[in-house]
Amino acid sequence: MQRGNERFVERLPLVLDRPLYAYVLTTIFCASALLLRIAADPLLPVGYPFVTFFPAVILASFLFGVRPGIFAGLLCGIISWYVFIPPHNGFAINPAVVVAMLFYSGVVVVDIALIHFMQRANFNLAVERERSRTLADNRELLFQELQHRVSNNLQVVAAMLSLQRRHVDHEVARRALDDASERLALVGRISRALYDPSGAGQDMHGFLTELTTDIMDASGRQDVALTVAVPVGLRLDPNITVPLALVVAESVSNAIEHGLPDRAGHIHVSLAQADGALALEVADDGHGLTPGGDGGQSLGLRIAHALAAQLGGRFALSAAPQGGAIARLDLPATIAC
Q: Where is the Histidine kinase domain (predicted)?
C-alpha cells in the first residue's frame, strides 16, 4: 500500500491526454468549492469567504501542476470576491477588500510554489532512484559476468591439467596433476555456487549438502552414506565459506580414500555455531587412524591445516571414540561473525 502511494506521488503532476481535461476538472473543483461554501454559509460566522476555495487550489496544483493551479487560484478568487465579499454579487473595491484579496493571493502563491517545488524535488528523487536501480542492475550483471568468467577460467585450467596428464608417464606426477585438476574444478564449482550479489551470504545447509553430494558422485561410491547437519538459516560470508568448503571437501575425500577405501560406511558432516564461534566436524566410521598411515599427512589435509591457519582457526584429525576418524575445524568468534 505504501509503495503504491509512493508510485502515485512520483507520477504527479498528472499528464492527461489533453491539457483541456485538466482545466475542466479544475473548474469542477472550483464549482464544488462554491457549492460547499454556500452550503456551509449558515454554519460559518461573518467572513471566511475563501475557506472552501483554498483546498480546490491546492488539489488542482497537486494533481495537474502550476498552470491549472494558477487558473484555480484566479477562478476561486473571482468567485469568492463576487459572491461572498460584501456587497454581495459585485466587485466592490475598498481597503478591507484589497487587504483580503492580497491575503488570499499570498496564500495561494505560497501553496502553489510549495507544491511545485515539492513535486520537482520528488521528480528528481525518482530520477536518481531509477539511476541508482540501473547502476545496481549493471553492477549485478558485471559481478555475475566476472564470477562466471572466473569459474570458467578455473574449469579451463583444470581441463588443461587433465590434458597434460596424458603426456606424463610418471605415476606420482600423474596423480599430482589429477589432484590439482580436481581441486581447481572444485574451487570453480564453489565460486559459482557462492554467487550472491545481495551479499546476504550463502545458506550453509543447502550449500554443504550440494557440495558433499557432488563429492560423493565424483568418487563413484554408492556404498557410502553421507549426512549433513547444519543449523537452519545459518549464513556465512563468502570469505569464510570458500575456505570452509575446501576443508569439507578435503576431509570428505580423505574419509573416502583412507577411512573407507574398501568397504561401506557412513560419513557425517556437522557445522555448529555457539557464541559466534564455528565448529565443523567430518566424522566417518571407517578404519580410523592407523600408525604409520599417511591419512593425517596427505596433501589434502596439509591444505586443510593451511586453510584453517588462514582463517585464524585450528584444524585437527583425531580418532573417533566408536571407531573411525573425526576431522574438526574450529573458528573463533572474531573470524566467524
A: 145-335
Using the 8-state DSSP alphabet, how is residue 257 labeled?
Answer: I
Beta strands in 56-207 (DSSP E): 202-203
Q: Which three cell numbers stand for residue 326?
A: 573425526
The predicted-structure confidence for 27-40, as pLDDT tens digits, reads as follows 999 999 999 999 98
Give the contacts of 37 (CB within 8 A, at least 6 positions apart): 49, 51, 52, 53, 80, 83, 84
Query: Is the CB of residue 337 less than 8 Å from the CB of residue 279?
Result: no
Residue 178 placed within a domain: no
Distances (CA, A) of 8 to 26, 122, 232: 19, 11, 40
Residues 123 and 214 in one domain: no
pLDDT 10s digits, 142-152: 666 666 666 66
CATH of residue 336's domain is 3.30.565.10
Cα dist from 292 to 198, 284, 302, whole Å: 48, 19, 16
DSSP H/E element including 131: helix 95-165
What does the pLDDT look like over 214-237, one tens digit per residue?
888 877 788 889 999 998 888 887
How many separate domains does the chain show? 2
- What's the domain range around 56? 2-134
Residue among 247, 275, 279 at smallest CA distance from 334? 275
Has residue 162 been placed in a domain?
no
DSSP secondary-structure letter at 231?
Answer: -
Please state the pTM of the whole predicted model. 0.52
Contact yes or no for 212/244 (Cβ under 8 A) = no
